[in-house]
Amino acid sequence: MNKHNQGPAPDMRAPVIAEHLKRRSEERQKRLALLTKLATERSSAVLAYVTASRVLVSAQIASDVIRLFRELLDPVGHVEKIDLLLITRGGHILTPLRLMSLLREFAGKVNVLVPYMAHSAGTLIALGADEIVMGAMGELGPVDPSVANSFNPILQPEDIQGTAHQKPRPRIPISVEDVTSYLNFAKSHAQLDAAGMAQAYSALTSQVHPLALGNILRHHSLIRHLAKTLLLMHMNPETDKEKIESIVKKLTEELYSHEYTITRDEATRLGLKVAKPSEKAEGYLWDLYRLYEGFFGIDRPINLAAELGAEKQKYLCFDLAVIETDGAAHSFCTRGLAVRKGATDLEFNADSQAWEN
């Protein structure tokens, strides 16, 4: 470890951590009143799951939350209705099915509340809900994942913007739908014959390892299976068959960009079970979103220069996700040392990333 990466003395960390925990507690107290009011208005047990996607550090939906949800659900017990308040840009695509299966072990009806964004894996979670309650700003998104594995192309130095070249060089994620769109373009728009399609495929495999393409095909099938399985948690496989197929096709193939946002009106037109919150619930949901945004940052970039000010190094703490009820909470926290190595050369070295009760 070089001298720039030497961590601060323990007594330097302690007051920063203590101040962070104090603010965490104060912010939770602000949210508790709104969570209680929302639960009363909705006649439900309310759980919140929030992840922040920030430049420099971020959190996303992942399987490590399943056990934490179980710990929060045990005191709640079996209830008639659970509302999951969800704010996320997405994450691990297998987690939604496990999470919604767990929630249904504790409630006869499970709804998802969307005050703002529930994208990608967040949309998958919403597909498993009996009702998706979307606020005026509520938005869902496509569920076409990007795949990264050891056979993906490596990002070359000339492709990396800036002076800091990551080592080892990262693999380039490949969008499942980008591959199918390329082949569809070659066939339908370029109108290539069999020989031309063979050349197009050869050009593709010269850039992307065949095993990476095989992995993409498996994800192509997996994401459709997951979307359909989640919809079948509350839809009839016989009478709703055409509607289910239409929803799956639209969300996995026909929105053309992973950044596309689906408003509640469009979600309704797609055939999803969407509801508007009551006027009071709408207010509670938006006020809660603003509190989460204020403390967790959500999409706000971390400005190391502003965090450091005139100091050369500073210990920092960031809460990046939370799972909570009105009775208990788990927060995901990243702690580390910010260092000023030059006028514009700043770095953050995390020494701790963990869920904390």
Please work out how many helical segments DSSP would assign: 11
* Main sheet makeup: 8 strands, mixed
Q: How many distinct beta strands?
A: 10
Shape: globular
| Terminal CA distance | 31 Å
Secondary structure: helix percent: 40-55%
Structural classification: alpha/beta
Radius of gyration: 23 Å
Uncertain spans: 160-165
Summarize this entry quickly.
The chain is of the alpha/beta class and 357 residues long.
Report on the architecture of this protein:
Mean pLDDT is 87; it is low at 160-165. With 357 residues, this protein is of the alpha/beta class. The strands form two sheets. It has an eight-stranded mixed β-sheet with strand order 7-4-3-2-1-8-9-10, sandwiched between helices. Strands 5-6 form a two-stranded antiparallel ribbon. It contains eleven helices and ten strands. It is globular. It has helices at 10-42, 65-76, 95-104, 121-127, 176-189, 194-207, 210-231, 241-253, 264-270, 279-296, 304-308; strands spanning 45-51, 79-87, 107-114, 131-134, 146-147, 174-175, 274-275, 313-324, 329-340, 346-356.
